[in-house]
Design brief:
By secondary structure, the protein is mainly beta. Helices cover 10% and strands 39% of the residues. The longest helix has 27 residues. The chain binds CU-O-CU linkage and copper (II) ion (CU) (2 copies).
Protein backbone atom coordinates (compact mmCIF):
# COMPACT_ATOMS: atom_id res chain seq x y z
CA UNK A 1 0.00 0.00 0.00
CA UNK A 2 1.27 3.42 -0.83
CA UNK A 3 0.63 6.20 1.64
CA UNK A 4 -1.44 9.18 0.66
CA UNK A 5 1.66 11.37 0.65
CA UNK A 6 3.44 9.03 -1.76
CA UNK A 7 0.40 9.00 -4.01
CA UNK A 8 0.21 12.78 -4.02
CA UNK A 9 3.91 13.01 -4.87
CA UNK A 10 3.43 10.59 -7.76
CA UNK A 11 0.40 12.49 -9.00
CA UNK A 12 2.38 15.72 -8.82
CA UNK A 13 5.22 14.28 -10.88
CA UNK A 14 2.70 12.85 -13.31
CA UNK A 15 1.13 16.24 -13.82
CA UNK A 16 4.52 17.78 -14.57
CA UNK A 17 5.46 15.02 -17.00
CA UNK A 18 2.10 15.33 -18.74
CA UNK A 19 2.18 19.06 -19.01
CA UNK A 20 5.64 19.11 -20.50
CA UNK A 21 4.67 16.27 -22.84
CA UNK A 22 1.73 18.30 -24.04
CA UNK A 23 3.89 21.32 -24.86
CA UNK A 24 6.50 19.10 -26.45
CA UNK A 25 4.08 17.38 -28.72
CA UNK A 26 2.58 20.67 -29.81
CA UNK A 27 6.00 22.01 -30.71
CA UNK A 28 6.87 18.89 -32.68
CA UNK A 29 3.49 18.91 -34.35
CA UNK A 30 3.72 22.45 -35.54
CA UNK A 31 6.84 21.50 -37.48
CA UNK A 32 5.07 18.86 -39.52
CA UNK A 33 3.59 15.39 -39.41
CA UNK A 34 4.77 13.12 -36.68
CA UNK A 35 5.07 9.83 -38.55
CA UNK A 36 5.35 10.16 -42.33
CA UNK A 37 4.18 7.29 -44.51
CA UNK A 38 6.84 5.34 -46.40
CA UNK A 39 5.59 3.76 -49.63
CA UNK A 40 6.49 0.17 -50.41
CA UNK A 41 7.19 -1.23 -53.86
CA UNK A 42 3.62 -2.22 -54.87
CA UNK A 43 4.86 -5.67 -55.91
CA UNK A 44 2.74 -7.83 -53.59
CA UNK A 45 -0.76 -8.77 -54.78
CA UNK A 46 -3.69 -7.57 -52.73
CA UNK A 47 -5.18 -10.37 -50.71
CA UNK A 48 -8.82 -10.54 -49.73
CA UNK A 49 -9.78 -12.21 -46.45
CA UNK A 50 -11.88 -15.38 -46.77
CA UNK A 51 -15.59 -14.98 -46.26
CA UNK A 52 -17.75 -16.89 -43.75
CA UNK A 53 -21.43 -16.67 -42.90
CA UNK A 54 -22.50 -15.73 -39.39
CA UNK A 55 -21.60 -19.10 -37.85
CA UNK A 56 -18.21 -20.20 -36.62
CA UNK A 57 -15.36 -19.68 -34.20
CA UNK A 58 -12.99 -16.76 -33.97
CA UNK A 59 -9.93 -17.39 -31.81
CA UNK A 60 -7.89 -14.37 -30.77
CA UNK A 61 -4.29 -15.55 -30.85
CA UNK A 62 -0.68 -14.64 -31.42
CA UNK A 63 0.30 -15.83 -34.90
CA UNK A 64 2.43 -14.88 -37.92
CA UNK A 65 1.35 -13.37 -41.22
CA UNK A 66 2.97 -12.21 -44.46
CA UNK A 67 2.69 -8.44 -44.50
CA UNK A 68 5.88 -7.85 -46.47
CA UNK A 69 6.49 -10.38 -49.24
CA UNK A 70 8.88 -13.14 -48.30
CA UNK A 71 8.88 -12.21 -44.60
CA UNK A 72 6.97 -13.39 -41.58
CA UNK A 73 5.64 -10.89 -39.08
CA UNK A 74 4.36 -11.59 -35.60
CA UNK A 75 0.78 -10.32 -35.37
CA UNK A 76 -2.50 -11.03 -33.62
CA UNK A 77 -5.16 -12.83 -35.63
CA UNK A 78 -8.53 -14.56 -35.35
CA UNK A 79 -7.21 -17.54 -37.29
CA UNK A 80 -3.75 -19.07 -37.48
CA UNK A 81 -1.50 -17.55 -40.14
CA UNK A 82 -3.32 -14.34 -40.89
CA UNK A 83 -3.71 -10.79 -39.74
CA UNK A 84 -7.35 -9.61 -39.74
CA UNK A 85 -10.28 -11.96 -39.33
CA UNK A 86 -12.48 -13.44 -42.05
CA UNK A 87 -15.13 -11.27 -43.65
CA UNK A 88 -18.46 -12.20 -42.10
CA UNK A 89 -21.23 -11.86 -44.70
CA UNK A 90 -24.91 -12.26 -43.78
CA UNK A 91 -28.32 -11.30 -45.07
CA UNK A 92 -30.38 -8.87 -43.08
CA UNK A 93 -32.60 -10.96 -40.81
CA UNK A 94 -30.00 -13.71 -40.27
CA UNK A 95 -28.95 -14.87 -36.83
CA UNK A 96 -25.26 -14.90 -36.11
CA UNK A 97 -23.73 -17.42 -33.76
CA UNK A 98 -20.03 -16.81 -33.22
CA UNK A 99 -17.93 -18.56 -30.62
CA UNK A 100 -15.15 -16.32 -29.47
CA UNK A 101 -12.14 -18.03 -27.91
CA UNK A 102 -9.60 -15.79 -26.19
CA UNK A 103 -6.11 -17.27 -26.46
CA UNK A 104 -4.42 -13.97 -25.63
CA UNK A 105 -2.67 -13.34 -22.32
CA UNK A 106 -5.15 -10.58 -21.47
CA UNK A 107 -8.87 -9.83 -21.57
CA UNK A 108 -10.51 -9.53 -24.95
CA UNK A 109 -13.96 -9.49 -26.53
CA UNK A 110 -15.64 -8.65 -29.82
CA UNK A 111 -17.50 -5.46 -30.58
CA UNK A 112 -19.67 -5.41 -33.71
CA UNK A 113 -19.01 -1.88 -34.90
CA UNK A 114 -22.11 -0.35 -36.47
CA UNK A 115 -24.36 -3.33 -35.78
CA UNK A 116 -27.31 -2.75 -33.52
CA UNK A 117 -26.85 -5.59 -31.04
CA UNK A 118 -28.38 -6.24 -27.61
CA UNK A 119 -26.30 -4.63 -24.88
CA UNK A 120 -24.91 -7.95 -23.63
CA UNK A 121 -23.80 -8.88 -27.19
CA UNK A 122 -22.26 -5.51 -28.08
CA UNK A 123 -18.78 -6.13 -26.72
CA UNK A 124 -19.04 -3.54 -23.98
CA UNK A 125 -15.55 -2.73 -22.55
CA UNK A 126 -16.38 -4.50 -19.28
CA UNK A 127 -18.01 -7.52 -20.89
CA UNK A 128 -14.93 -9.59 -21.68
CA UNK A 129 -13.61 -13.13 -21.98
CA UNK A 130 -10.61 -13.66 -19.74
CA UNK A 131 -7.39 -15.25 -20.92
CA UNK A 132 -8.09 -18.82 -22.05
CA UNK A 133 -11.87 -18.53 -21.84
CA UNK A 134 -14.61 -18.15 -24.40
CA UNK A 135 -17.77 -16.20 -25.04
CA UNK A 136 -20.65 -16.79 -27.40
CA UNK A 137 -22.15 -14.02 -29.49
CA UNK A 138 -25.56 -14.69 -30.92
CA UNK A 139 -28.14 -12.19 -32.06
CA UNK A 140 -30.27 -11.33 -35.05
CA UNK A 141 -28.87 -8.86 -37.54
CA UNK A 142 -31.93 -6.92 -38.56
CA UNK A 143 -30.53 -3.75 -40.04
CA UNK A 144 -30.05 -2.64 -43.63
CA UNK A 145 -27.24 -3.70 -45.95
CA UNK A 146 -23.92 -2.09 -45.25
CA UNK A 147 -20.27 -2.57 -44.43
CA UNK A 148 -19.82 -2.91 -40.70
CA UNK A 149 -16.82 -4.34 -38.89
CA UNK A 150 -15.66 -6.08 -35.73
CA UNK A 151 -12.76 -5.61 -33.37
CA UNK A 152 -11.85 -6.10 -29.68
CA UNK A 153 -13.07 -3.58 -27.11
CA UNK A 154 -11.66 -4.54 -23.67
CA UNK A 155 -11.16 -1.53 -21.43
CA UNK A 156 -7.62 -0.24 -21.89
CA UNK A 157 -6.54 -2.78 -24.54
CA UNK A 158 -8.69 -1.91 -27.54
CA UNK A 159 -6.03 0.13 -29.31
CA UNK A 160 -3.27 -2.42 -28.86
CA UNK A 161 -5.31 -5.46 -29.90
CA UNK A 162 -6.93 -3.81 -32.92
CA UNK A 163 -3.59 -2.40 -34.00
CA UNK A 164 -1.80 -5.74 -33.76
CA UNK A 165 -4.28 -7.31 -36.17
CA UNK A 166 -7.62 -8.10 -34.55
CA UNK A 167 -10.27 -6.66 -36.84
CA UNK A 168 -12.51 -7.87 -39.62
CA UNK A 169 -15.18 -6.80 -42.08
CA UNK A 170 -18.87 -7.56 -41.50
CA UNK A 171 -21.06 -7.28 -44.60
CA UNK A 172 -24.84 -7.21 -44.44
CA UNK A 173 -26.85 -7.76 -47.65
CA UNK A 174 -30.50 -7.01 -48.32
CA UNK A 175 -33.03 -6.96 -51.14
CA UNK A 176 -32.86 -3.21 -51.68
CA UNK A 177 -29.14 -3.48 -52.41
CA UNK A 178 -29.49 -6.66 -54.48
CA UNK A 179 -31.92 -4.97 -56.87
CA UNK A 180 -29.23 -2.50 -57.97
CA UNK A 181 -27.00 -5.18 -59.48
CA UNK A 182 -23.89 -3.44 -58.25
CA UNK A 183 -20.50 -4.89 -59.23
CA UNK A 184 -20.16 -8.12 -57.27
CA UNK A 185 -17.98 -11.20 -56.93
CA UNK A 186 -14.45 -10.38 -58.04
CA UNK A 187 -15.55 -6.82 -58.82
CA UNK A 188 -16.51 -6.08 -55.21
CA UNK A 189 -13.40 -5.64 -53.10
CA UNK A 190 -13.15 -4.86 -49.39
CA UNK A 191 -10.17 -2.61 -48.66
CA UNK A 192 -9.13 -2.35 -45.01
CA UNK A 193 -6.59 0.46 -44.80
CA UNK A 194 -4.27 0.54 -41.78
CA UNK A 195 -0.89 2.02 -40.94
CA UNK A 196 1.68 0.05 -38.97
CA UNK A 197 5.02 0.43 -37.27
CA UNK A 198 7.35 -2.55 -37.40
CA UNK A 199 10.39 -3.77 -35.50
CA UNK A 200 13.66 -4.73 -37.19
CA UNK A 201 12.29 -8.32 -37.28
CA UNK A 202 9.23 -7.16 -39.26
CA UNK A 203 6.99 -7.78 -36.28
CA UNK A 204 4.22 -5.31 -35.57
CA UNK A 205 5.23 -2.92 -32.86
CA UNK A 206 2.79 -1.32 -30.46
CA UNK A 207 4.55 0.84 -27.89
CA UNK A 208 2.92 4.24 -27.76
CA UNK A 209 4.74 7.12 -26.16
CA UNK A 210 2.81 9.92 -24.56
CA UNK A 211 3.15 11.83 -27.81
CA UNK A 212 1.58 8.92 -29.70
CA UNK A 213 -1.31 9.05 -27.26
CA UNK A 214 -1.73 12.73 -28.12
CA UNK A 215 -1.80 12.24 -31.89
CA UNK A 216 -2.91 8.62 -32.19
CA UNK A 217 -0.48 5.82 -32.94
CA UNK A 218 0.59 6.25 -36.54
CA UNK A 219 2.91 4.01 -38.51
CA UNK A 220 4.91 4.53 -41.69
CA UNK A 221 3.80 1.32 -43.43
CA UNK A 222 0.42 1.52 -45.12
CA UNK A 223 -1.32 -1.87 -45.34
CA UNK A 224 -4.37 -2.83 -47.32
CA UNK A 225 -6.04 -6.05 -46.15
CA UNK A 226 -2.90 -6.80 -44.16
CA UNK A 227 -0.47 -6.43 -47.08
CA UNK A 228 2.01 -3.55 -47.28
CA UNK A 229 1.62 -1.37 -50.41
CA UNK A 230 -0.14 -4.00 -52.59
CA UNK A 231 -1.28 -4.00 -56.21
CA UNK A 232 -4.50 -5.27 -57.75
CA UNK A 233 -5.06 -6.26 -61.38
CA UNK A 234 -8.33 -4.97 -62.78
CA UNK A 235 -10.31 -5.21 -65.99
CA UNK A 236 -11.84 -2.30 -67.89
CA UNK A 237 -14.97 -2.34 -65.78
CA UNK A 238 -16.65 -0.74 -62.80
CA UNK A 239 -15.45 -1.94 -59.42
CA UNK A 240 -17.12 -1.58 -56.06
CA UNK A 241 -14.48 -0.73 -53.46
CA UNK A 242 -15.67 -1.08 -49.89
CA UNK A 243 -13.21 0.86 -47.84
CA UNK A 244 -12.73 0.70 -44.08
CA UNK A 245 -10.31 3.00 -42.33
CA UNK A 246 -9.13 0.47 -39.76
CA UNK A 247 -6.27 2.64 -38.53
CA UNK A 248 -5.97 3.67 -34.91
CA UNK A 249 -5.31 7.33 -35.57
CA UNK A 250 -4.57 8.11 -39.20
CA UNK A 251 -7.07 9.93 -41.42
CA UNK A 252 -6.91 9.37 -45.20
CA UNK A 253 -7.95 11.81 -47.90
CA UNK A 254 -8.73 9.18 -50.54
CA UNK A 255 -8.26 10.03 -54.21
CA UNK A 256 -7.03 8.51 -57.46
CA UNK A 257 -3.53 9.41 -58.61
CA UNK A 258 -4.82 10.84 -61.92
CA UNK A 259 -7.39 12.92 -60.09
CA UNK A 260 -10.26 11.11 -61.79
CA UNK A 261 -13.64 11.37 -60.14
CA UNK A 262 -15.31 8.40 -58.51
CA UNK A 263 -18.74 7.75 -57.05
CA UNK A 264 -19.55 7.50 -53.37
CA UNK A 265 -22.55 5.20 -53.05
CA UNK A 266 -22.54 4.38 -49.37
CA UNK A 267 -21.27 5.18 -45.91
CA UNK A 268 -21.07 3.51 -42.48
CA UNK A 269 -24.71 2.45 -42.40
CA UNK A 270 -25.21 1.40 -46.02
CA UNK A 271 -26.22 2.96 -49.32
CA UNK A 272 -26.79 6.68 -49.81
CA UNK A 273 -30.03 7.82 -51.40
CA UNK A 274 -28.20 8.95 -54.55
CA UNK A 275 -24.59 8.54 -55.75
CA UNK A 276 -22.26 11.48 -55.13
CA UNK A 277 -19.43 12.24 -57.54
CA UNK A 278 -16.20 13.37 -55.90
CA UNK A 279 -12.47 13.57 -56.60
CA UNK A 280 -11.46 13.03 -52.97
CA UNK A 281 -12.96 11.76 -49.74
CA UNK A 282 -11.82 12.21 -46.16
CA UNK A 283 -12.14 9.01 -44.12
CA UNK A 284 -11.44 9.02 -40.38
CA UNK A 285 -10.61 5.99 -38.20
CA UNK A 286 -13.60 3.65 -37.96
CA UNK A 287 -15.46 5.15 -40.93
CA UNK A 288 -16.39 3.25 -44.09
CA UNK A 289 -17.01 4.32 -47.67
CA UNK A 290 -18.67 2.40 -50.49
CA UNK A 291 -17.14 3.52 -53.78
CA UNK A 292 -17.64 2.82 -57.47
CA UNK A 293 -14.48 3.31 -59.52
CA UNK A 294 -14.84 3.02 -63.28
CA UNK A 295 -11.74 1.67 -65.02
CA UNK A 296 -13.48 1.20 -68.38
CA UNK A 297 -11.90 4.14 -70.20
CA UNK A 298 -8.28 3.18 -69.43
CA UNK A 299 -6.14 1.36 -71.97
CA UNK A 300 -4.69 -1.97 -70.91
CA UNK A 301 -1.32 -1.27 -69.31
CA UNK A 302 -2.50 1.75 -67.34
CA UNK A 303 -1.29 1.98 -63.77
CA UNK A 304 -3.25 4.00 -61.30
CA UNK A 305 -2.91 4.49 -57.56
CA UNK A 306 -5.30 4.92 -54.70
CA UNK A 307 -3.63 7.76 -52.83
CA UNK A 308 -4.09 9.90 -49.77
CA UNK A 309 -3.83 13.60 -50.56
CA UNK A 310 -2.84 16.33 -48.13
CA UNK A 311 -5.56 18.00 -46.08
CA UNK A 312 -5.83 20.45 -43.27
CA UNK A 313 -6.67 18.91 -39.88
CA UNK A 314 -4.53 20.39 -37.17
CA UNK A 315 -0.84 19.87 -36.68
CA UNK A 316 -0.42 16.11 -36.70
CA UNK A 317 -2.25 14.98 -39.84
CA UNK A 318 -2.60 15.62 -43.54
CA UNK A 319 0.80 17.13 -44.17
CA UNK A 320 1.85 14.50 -46.69
CA UNK A 321 0.44 12.82 -49.76
CA UNK A 322 1.30 9.20 -50.36
CA UNK A 323 0.23 6.23 -52.44
CA UNK A 324 -1.78 3.48 -50.75
CA UNK A 325 -2.14 0.80 -53.43
CA UNK A 326 -1.73 0.30 -57.16
CA UNK A 327 -4.32 -0.77 -59.74
CA UNK A 328 -2.97 -2.30 -62.96
CA UNK A 329 -5.41 -2.39 -65.84
CA UNK A 330 -4.55 -5.74 -67.39
CA UNK A 331 -7.55 -6.88 -69.39
CA UNK A 332 -10.04 -5.24 -71.68
CA UNK A 333 -13.65 -6.25 -71.26
CA UNK A 334 -17.05 -4.88 -72.12
CA UNK A 335 -19.01 -3.56 -69.15
CA UNK A 336 -22.69 -2.70 -69.43
CA UNK A 337 -23.03 -1.49 -65.84
CA UNK A 338 -24.52 1.94 -65.29
CA UNK A 339 -24.89 3.40 -61.87
CA UNK A 340 -28.57 3.96 -61.00
CA UNK A 341 -29.59 7.53 -60.11
CA UNK A 342 -31.43 6.30 -57.05
CA UNK A 343 -29.72 3.87 -54.71
CA UNK A 344 -31.89 3.54 -51.64
CA UNK A 345 -34.55 5.28 -49.66
CA UNK A 346 -33.45 7.12 -46.56
CA UNK A 347 -36.10 8.66 -44.35
CA UNK A 348 -34.69 11.77 -42.80
CA UNK A 349 -35.35 12.04 -39.08
CA UNK A 350 -36.98 15.37 -38.42
CA UNK A 351 -35.31 17.74 -35.96
CA UNK A 352 -38.65 18.83 -34.62
CA UNK A 353 -39.33 15.29 -33.43
CA UNK A 354 -36.32 15.21 -31.11
CA UNK A 355 -37.13 14.52 -27.47
CA UNK A 356 -33.81 15.76 -26.16
CA UNK A 357 -30.53 17.46 -27.11
CA UNK A 358 -27.25 16.60 -25.40
CA UNK A 359 -23.92 18.33 -25.80
CA UNK A 360 -20.54 16.65 -25.62
CA UNK A 361 -17.53 18.89 -25.27
CA UNK A 362 -14.59 17.17 -26.94
CA UNK A 363 -12.33 20.21 -27.27
CA UNK A 364 -9.97 19.09 -24.52
CA UNK A 365 -8.83 22.66 -24.51
CA UNK A 366 -7.34 24.72 -21.73
CA UNK A 367 -4.90 23.77 -19.07
CA UNK A 368 -7.52 21.94 -17.03
CA UNK A 369 -6.84 18.71 -18.86
CA UNK A 370 -3.47 17.82 -17.55
CA UNK A 371 -4.45 14.27 -16.86
CA UNK A 372 -4.88 12.57 -13.57
CA UNK A 373 -4.59 9.31 -11.78
CA UNK A 374 -7.11 6.81 -12.99
CA UNK A 375 -6.29 4.07 -10.53
CA UNK A 376 -3.67 1.59 -9.62
CA UNK A 377 -3.59 -1.70 -11.44
CA UNK A 378 -1.25 -4.58 -10.76
CA UNK A 379 1.31 -2.94 -13.01
CA UNK A 380 1.30 0.18 -10.89
CA UNK A 381 -0.24 3.52 -11.52
CA UNK A 382 -1.59 4.36 -14.94
CA UNK A 383 -2.00 7.91 -16.09
CA UNK A 384 -5.07 8.68 -18.10
CA UNK A 385 -7.17 11.57 -19.09
CA UNK A 386 -5.34 13.74 -21.60
CA UNK A 387 -8.46 13.23 -23.73
CA UNK A 388 -11.87 13.62 -22.21
CA UNK A 389 -15.53 14.13 -23.04
CA UNK A 390 -17.33 16.80 -21.01
CA UNK A 391 -14.15 16.90 -18.92
CA UNK A 392 -14.76 13.30 -17.82
CA UNK A 393 -12.48 10.30 -18.17
CA UNK A 394 -14.16 6.93 -18.83
CA UNK A 395 -15.28 5.27 -15.62
CA UNK A 396 -16.94 1.86 -15.84
CA UNK A 397 -18.90 2.47 -12.64
CA UNK A 398 -20.47 5.72 -13.83
CA UNK A 399 -23.44 6.03 -16.18
CA UNK A 400 -23.02 9.35 -17.94
CA UNK A 401 -26.24 9.57 -19.89
CA UNK A 402 -29.61 7.87 -19.59
CA UNK A 403 -31.58 7.50 -22.81
CA UNK A 404 -35.14 6.27 -23.20
CA UNK A 405 -35.72 3.36 -25.55
CA UNK A 406 -37.47 4.53 -28.69
CA UNK A 407 -36.64 8.20 -28.17
CA UNK A 408 -35.24 10.55 -30.77
CA UNK A 409 -32.25 12.63 -29.70
CA UNK A 410 -29.86 15.22 -31.08
CA UNK A 411 -26.28 14.89 -29.88
CA UNK A 412 -23.90 17.75 -30.45
CA UNK A 413 -20.15 17.09 -30.46
CA UNK A 414 -18.26 20.30 -29.83
CA UNK A 415 -14.63 20.47 -30.92
CA UNK A 416 -14.76 24.20 -31.59
CA UNK A 417 -11.93 24.98 -29.20
CA UNK A 418 -10.03 21.77 -29.92
CA UNK A 419 -6.78 21.42 -31.81
CA UNK A 420 -6.98 17.70 -32.64
CA UNK A 421 -9.26 15.67 -34.93
CA UNK A 422 -11.70 13.28 -33.19
CA UNK A 423 -13.77 10.63 -35.03
CA UNK A 424 -16.72 10.28 -32.64
CA UNK A 425 -18.53 6.94 -32.53
CA UNK A 426 -21.75 5.85 -30.80
CA UNK A 427 -22.59 2.21 -30.07
CA UNK A 428 -26.00 0.65 -30.45
CA UNK A 429 -27.43 3.07 -32.98
CA UNK A 430 -27.04 4.54 -36.47
CA UNK A 431 -27.40 8.30 -36.81
CA UNK A 432 -27.83 11.02 -39.42
CA UNK A 433 -25.55 14.04 -39.51
CA UNK A 434 -27.53 17.29 -39.28
CA UNK A 435 -24.87 19.94 -39.68
CA UNK A 436 -21.30 21.03 -39.14
CA UNK A 437 -20.49 24.50 -37.89
CA UNK A 438 -16.95 25.85 -37.94
CA UNK A 439 -13.98 24.31 -39.75
CA UNK A 440 -15.23 22.83 -43.03
CA UNK A 441 -18.68 24.29 -42.31
CA UNK A 442 -20.47 21.70 -44.42
CA UNK A 443 -21.20 18.01 -44.72
CA UNK A 444 -19.24 15.70 -46.99
CA UNK A 445 -20.67 13.09 -49.38
CA UNK A 446 -20.70 10.15 -46.94
CA UNK A 447 -22.48 12.26 -44.35
CA UNK A 448 -25.63 12.20 -46.46
CA UNK A 449 -26.20 8.63 -45.36
CA UNK A 450 -26.51 6.62 -42.16
CA UNK A 451 -23.43 6.88 -39.96
CA UNK A 452 -22.07 5.53 -36.69
CA UNK A 453 -18.82 7.49 -36.68
CA UNK A 454 -18.40 11.15 -37.59
CA UNK A 455 -15.12 13.02 -37.97
CA UNK A 456 -14.64 16.34 -36.22
CA UNK A 457 -11.66 18.36 -37.32
CA UNK A 458 -10.30 21.11 -35.05
CA UNK A 459 -12.74 24.01 -34.72
CA UNK A 460 -15.83 22.01 -35.68
CA UNK A 461 -19.16 21.41 -34.02
CA UNK A 462 -21.32 18.61 -35.43
CA UNK A 463 -24.89 17.66 -34.62
CA UNK A 464 -26.25 14.17 -35.22
CA UNK A 465 -29.80 12.89 -34.83
CA UNK A 466 -30.89 9.34 -34.07
CA UNK A 467 -33.73 7.20 -32.89
CA UNK A 468 -32.76 4.68 -30.25
CA UNK A 469 -34.12 1.17 -30.51
CA UNK A 470 -35.60 -1.12 -27.89
CA UNK A 471 -32.37 -2.83 -26.79
CA UNK A 472 -32.03 -1.80 -23.18
CA UNK A 473 -28.76 -1.73 -21.30
CA UNK A 474 -25.33 -0.15 -21.27
CA UNK A 475 -23.45 1.11 -24.32
CA UNK A 476 -20.53 3.45 -24.86
CA UNK A 477 -19.72 6.45 -27.02
CA UNK A 478 -16.11 7.35 -27.67
CA UNK A 479 -13.48 8.82 -29.91
CA UNK A 480 -12.38 6.21 -32.47
CA UNK A 481 -8.85 7.45 -32.40
CA UNK A 482 -8.13 4.36 -30.34
CA UNK A 483 -5.30 5.92 -28.35
CA UNK A 484 -7.71 8.69 -27.34
CA UNK A 485 -10.33 6.05 -26.50
CA UNK A 486 -7.98 3.99 -24.32
CA UNK A 487 -6.79 7.23 -22.74
CA UNK A 488 -10.32 7.63 -21.43
CA UNK A 489 -12.13 9.57 -24.18
CA UNK A 490 -15.21 7.40 -23.74
CA UNK A 491 -18.49 7.73 -21.84
CA UNK A 492 -21.15 5.25 -20.94
CA UNK A 493 -24.87 5.60 -21.63
CA UNK A 494 -27.75 3.39 -20.65
CA UNK A 495 -30.89 2.81 -22.66
CA UNK A 496 -33.81 2.30 -20.28
CU1 LIG B 1 -15.23 0.45 -33.46
CU2 LIG B 1 -16.50 1.26 -29.72
O1 LIG B 1 -15.84 0.85 -31.59
CU1 LIG C 1 -18.64 0.51 -32.34
CU1 LIG D 1 -9.96 11.80 -30.31
Amino acid sequence: MKTMVQILVIVGIGAIVLSSCRKDSMMTNSEGQVIPAIEGDFLAPLSVPPSINGQGTLTAQVTTATIFSGKKSKVLGYQPGSILGPTIAVNSGDNININFQNDLAENSNIHWHGLIAPSNMDGHPEDVARQGSSRNYSFTVSQRAGMYWYHPHPDGFTAEQAYLGLAGVFLVRDAEEQRLNLPSGEMEIPLVIQDKRITSNNDLDYSPTMMDVMTGYMGPNILVNGVSSPYKDVRTRNYRLRVLNGSNGRIYNLALSNNASFSVIGADGGLLATPQTVTSLLLGPGERADLIVNFSSYPVGTELFLVSNTFSAGASQGKQNFRIMKFRVTQSEKDSFTLPNTLSSINLISKSGANKTRTFDISNGGMGNMGGMSGMGSSGMTMKGMHRINDKVYDKSRIDEIVEAGSTEIWEFDNSKGDEPHPMHIHGVQFQVLDRIGGRNSLISTENGWKDTVLLLPGEKVRVIMRFGQNKGKYVLHCHNLEHEDDGMMLQFEII
